[in-house]
Write a structure and sequence with these properties.
Helices cover 67% and strands 5% of the residues. It is mainly alpha-helical. Helix 2 packs antiparallel against helix 8. It is globular and about 85 Å long.
Length: 442
């Protein structure tokens, strides 16, 4: 049935063109991750970056698809755009002007997108300057420099190259949104993470071939991966349906409303953001140690925040729980939801409109966020546990949880939902005959 579904996908001309266009754009993006910024000794850079994997630079390299560790023109990845989007979203919670834009529909969305682009340009310029200064500081024990000819010329060239690269990635993502299928920005991050998978599999195969791990252990690892993915899918797709009724209204000779529907509250409203925020903070001690290698304080702090320590796991988990509640409060405001329901003539059965509806939604959101935050914390800690106890290389263990796996599952589900919609509208069977891939609709 799955092979027949893939054949049906390419039978639909419009869908086939969208998929091929998306693959072409992703291919162009991957080419850009291998074009190195001029003026860099790549051999020295590769050797100097080995000790930076468990720092903020390693986290940044994950989202850049490996381009940051190569100092490629796409080295900043799409992170400046994501940072600008988050900043604009946070401003919408505290500044009335941005709150007004968020409520203005399509025109407001266009203005927010314009401000996001300006913010992306500014953040890219600032970050590329910081990257240039950082690259100039890389020096090996034998005296070789990652940048043989440092100076203002190299800094300007790096700023122009990497800022242009980020703006190009943003444009490529928008092209996918307009002419391809799926969310362009998400797919670019997705393909960058997946690009690491073949190398991780080869490293694990080498350990298996030399007898370091047996066949039964490998089978158990595969089974564990499937179980983790299954529960992540449940978390990503899980919703709490709040019943909503709309009162009948008579306008002239027409009757409006009088329908029963539901308002879906996602179990994991915050998505992957809590893990990103918590991970960024947890990497601060090891990042500072790279700039202050002789500091005894930061050395002891790094040992305390080592990824294989119980202290790291507990603090990391608690921070994820905190940021899950924090980001959920920003992403979904019960006050606005209650006001919108009241304006549209809707109400929750048994709950009075207005403040009581707000308190009811806030109570439900608080309850469903707790198990979601705990599960996110467990998923984030799984890779470190496997690396310590199962002696799995962290390059492979990272695909058992954490930021990477959550992004992979979330983007894959979104892509499948959109493909399912195209198939269903043209009366083809989807990937599952029972139609359980949510988002499949006519």
């Amino acid at each position: 049935m799955m092979l027949e579904t893939f054949r049906n996908v390419f039978k639909i001309g419009d869908l086939r063109r969208k998929i091929l266009f998306t693959l072409m754009i992703l291919g162009i993006e991957r080419i850009g991750t291998h074009i190195v910024t001029p003026g860099i000794d790549t051999a020295v850079l590769a050797e100097g970056f080995r000790d930076l994997q468990n720092t903020l630079f390693g986290l940044y390299d994950l989202f850049a698809g490996g381009a940051f560790s190569k100092a490629a023109i796409f080295g900043l990845g799409i992170m400046p755009y994501i940072s600008a989007s988050i900043i604009i979203q946070l401003l919408g919670a505290v500044i009335p002007y941005f709150q007004k834009l968020q409520k203005e529909g399509e025109e407001g969305r266009k203005k927010i997108m314009q401000y996001t682009r300006y913010g992306t340009l500014l953040i890219s310029a600032m970050q590329s300057l910081g990257v240039a200064i950082f690259l100039q500081s890389i020096q090996l024990a034998d005296g070789r420099l990652a940048v043989p000819n440092p100076g203002i010329g190299f800094q300007l060239l790096t700023m122009i190259s990497m800022t242009s690269g980020t703006m190009l990635i943003m444009w490529l993502g928008e092209l996918i949104d307009q002419h391809g299928i799926g969310n362009g920005i998400s797919l670019i991050i997705f393909i960058g993470i997946i690009a690491r998978f073949p190398a991780a599999i080869m490293e694990e195969y080498q350990q298996f071939s030399i007898g370091q791990r047996g066949l039964l252990a490998e089978i158990m690892l595969v089974a564990l991966a499937l179980v983790v993915i299954y529960f992540i899918v449940l978390l990503t797709q899980g919703t709490r349906k709040i019943p909503v009724q709309y009162a009948k209204r008579v306008v002239g000779r027409k009757v409006y409303g009088g329908v029963n529907t539901h308002f879906p509250l996602k179990v994991n409203t915050a998505g992957v953001m809590p893990i990103i925020f918590a991970q960024a903070i947890m990497f601060v001690p090891s990042t500072l140690l790279t700039f202050l290698p002789d500091s005894d304080f930061f050395l002891s702090l790094q040992q305390l925040f080592s990824m294989d320590s119980w202290f790291y796991w507990i603090v990391y988990g608690l921070m994820i729980v905190f940021f899950t509640y924090f980001y959920t409060a920003i992403a979904l405001n019960p006050v606005e939801v209650a006001e919108n329901l009241k304006k549209q003539g809707g109400f929750i059965p048994g709950v009075r409109p207005g403040k009581k509806t707000q308190e009811f939604l806030d109570n439900i959101l608080t309850r469903i966020t707790l198990p979601s935050s705990i599960f996110l914390a467990i998923v984030a800690i799984i890779p470190a546990m496997l690396a310590k106890w199962a002696k799995i290389p962290y390059s492979l263990a990272s695909f058992y949880g954490g930021t990477g796996l959550l992004i992979i599952v979330g983007v894959a589900l979104d892509f499948l939902q959109q493909v399912e919609s195209h198939l269903f509208m043209r009366h083809y069977d989807g990937f599952m005959k029972s139609g359980r891939v949510r988002g499949r609709r006519g």
